[in-house]
């Protein structure tokens, strides 16, 4: 499973550079007579032939991007960010400090504060990041994790001015933050980055990233858009741009430009196991929430109150769809917006308003675009026919994840599926073992609890075995509880 690492780094105080010099030795000879004028002219011609005069300006080959001109235009709008954090640590009783060879006293590891004495102390740590100026009022966009729990934020502009910045808004779900520069005398003179459109961005386009990797400010890298709409397990709103432009710790919050000099993404994550794989938040996501962040400091989103899962070809066939599409409803929150509107477990949500839901990953993003309290129409597939359900959305809040109590019972097993089942404490039949190569192999796993077989509820192991054995050959639709969530599984019984 892909693991994304948020690119935040502590400051690097020193970067050693190794220079190699190669000196050639020339044998000594007796002094030679001065060359004649004709031989000197000939030598000058040869020298001119070997070392032509440089171009007045570097040529740009036809079809090649003029990256140097692009960077010169957009670089002033990029800023370096240093966020200071106070971290509690344990003091060491050791009475001496070690000294940093690059200048200044360096507290012993785990022993900040006064020397000796033990106990707890507080040390100041720094996190590096990048941002870009988004308007003439001095607002800067960056990642939320760059400034999370920061006691102080300092911003360095491209002209080397250093300013304090105040965090005016954060959206942790999208990992976005907006800062406001302090002490700007003439904000109208600030270089502002142009915001483009990530929706119009095409896979294969050239992109340029500018950032502060490892404290090396305003570093430029170039690559292409490798993919769009990537889900990397960062949350329900995953919708990343993948690029092979080099992104390293310190690039977090920095802009990803297209060749028109417009910001089309915000660099946020890397895959530590893979080189040339970086991820950026689409700029359209920032443009959607920016008004709320500037006005209230946070983002209010609508919520539907359902647990969903993605479709596969077998599930689609069992539910009466020609192809896998939509979001399959597993759980319906008691008393939530979906239940109040009559939405049921087993419904497939195909549209929200006028937006099509092609995959379950799209549903949270589509619903979140609607404000709490708004009324939206859902197009759902129920019992192989479509209908419209009107829902009034609640406000999205952090929710606790329910856990399944551990069931226990004597195992028994129906034939044809390769399953060993036992009673579940909360009702249904718990999967105790899955036979390798059986019909349910790689579809069910130990701990799953079967609660329905072909839309018929089963309350215990006996009922589940009876329903499974009497099911016709072909696709059998099972409703199961897995790790506190409800899912549907389609099993092909031969």
TrEMBL record:
Its EC number is 3.4.21.107. It is found in: Periplasm. Residues 28-54 are annotated as: Disordered. The keyword Kinase does not apply. InterPro entries: Chloro_Bact_Ser_Proteases (IPR051201), PDZ (IPR001478), PDZ_6 (IPR041489), PDZ_sf (IPR036034), Pept_S1C_Do (IPR011782), Peptidase_S1_PA (IPR009003), Peptidase_S1C (IPR001940). PROSITE patterns: PDZ, PROKAR_LIPOPROTEIN. GO terms for molecular function: hydrolase activity. Residues 1-30 form the signal peptide. Its main location: periplasm. Keywords: Hydrolase, Periplasm, Protease, Repeat, Serine protease, Signal. Residues 293-384, 400-483 form the PDZ domain. PANTHER family: PEPTIDASE S12 (PTHR43343), PROTEASE DO-LIKE 8, CHLOROPLASTIC (PTHR43343:SF3). This is Do family serine endopeptidase. It comes from Pendulispora albinea.
């Amino acid at each position: 499973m892909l693991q994304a690492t948020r690119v935040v780094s502590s400051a690097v105080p020193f970067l050693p550079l190794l220079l190699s010099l190669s000196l050639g030795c020339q044998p000594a000879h007796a002094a030679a007579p001065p060359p004649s004028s004709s031989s000197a002219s000939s030598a000058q011609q040869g020298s001119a032939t070997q070392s032509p005069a440089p171009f007045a300006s570097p040529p740009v080959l036809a079809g090649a991007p003029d990256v140097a001109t692009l960077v010169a235009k957009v670089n002033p709008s990029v800023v370096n960010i240093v966020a200071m954090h106070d971290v509690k640590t344990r003091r060491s009783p050791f009475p001496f400090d070690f000294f940093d060879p690059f200048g200044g006293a360096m507290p012993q590891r785990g022993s900040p504060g006064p020397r000796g004495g033990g106990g707890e102390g507080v040390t100041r740590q720094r996190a590096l990041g990048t941002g870009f100026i988004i308007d003439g009022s001095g607002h800067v966009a960056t990642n939320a994790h760059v400034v999370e729990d920061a006691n102080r934020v300092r911003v360095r502009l491209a002209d080397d001015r250093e300013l304090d910045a105040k965090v005016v808004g954060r959206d942790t779900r999208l990992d976005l933050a907006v800062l406001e520069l302090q002490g700007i005398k003439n904000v109208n003179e600030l270089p502002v980055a142009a915001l483009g459109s990530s929706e119009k961005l095409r896979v294969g386009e050239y992109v340029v990233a500018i950032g502060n990797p490892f404290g090396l400010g305003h570093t430029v890298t170039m690559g292409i858009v490798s993919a769009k709409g990537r889900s990397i397990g960062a949350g329900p709103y995953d919708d990343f741009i993948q690029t092979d432009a080099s992104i390293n710790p310190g690039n977090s919050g920095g802009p990803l430009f297209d060749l028109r000099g417009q910001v089309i993404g915000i660099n946020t994550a890397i895959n530590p196991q893979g080189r040339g794989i970086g991820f950026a938040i689409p700029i359209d996501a920032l443009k959607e929430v920016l008004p709320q962040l500037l006005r209230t400091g946070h983002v209010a989103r609508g919520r539907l109150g359902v647990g969903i899962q993605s479709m596969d070809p077998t599930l689609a066939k069992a539910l009466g769809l020609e192809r896998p599409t939509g979001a399959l409803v597993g759980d319906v929150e008691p008393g939530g917006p979906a239940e109040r509107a009559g939405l049921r477990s087993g419904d497939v949500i195909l549209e929200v308003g006028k937006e099509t839901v092609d995959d379950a990953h799209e549903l949270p993003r589509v619903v979140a675009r609607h404000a709490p309290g708004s009324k939206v129409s859902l197009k759902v597939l129920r019992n192989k026919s479509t209908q419209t359900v009107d829902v009034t959305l609640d406000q999205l809040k952090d929710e606790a994840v329910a856990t399944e109590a551990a069931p226990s019972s004597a195992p028994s097993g129906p034939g044809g599926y390769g399953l060993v089942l036992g009673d579940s404490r909360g009702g249904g039949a718990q999967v105790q073992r899955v036979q390798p190569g059986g019909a349910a192999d790689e579809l069910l796993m130990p701990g799953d609890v079967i609660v329905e077989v072909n839309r018929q509820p089963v309350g215990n192991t006996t009922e589940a075995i009876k329903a499974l054995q009497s099911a016709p050959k072909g696709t059998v639709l099972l409703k199961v509880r897995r790790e506190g969530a409800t899912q549907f599984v389609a099993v092909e019984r031969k």
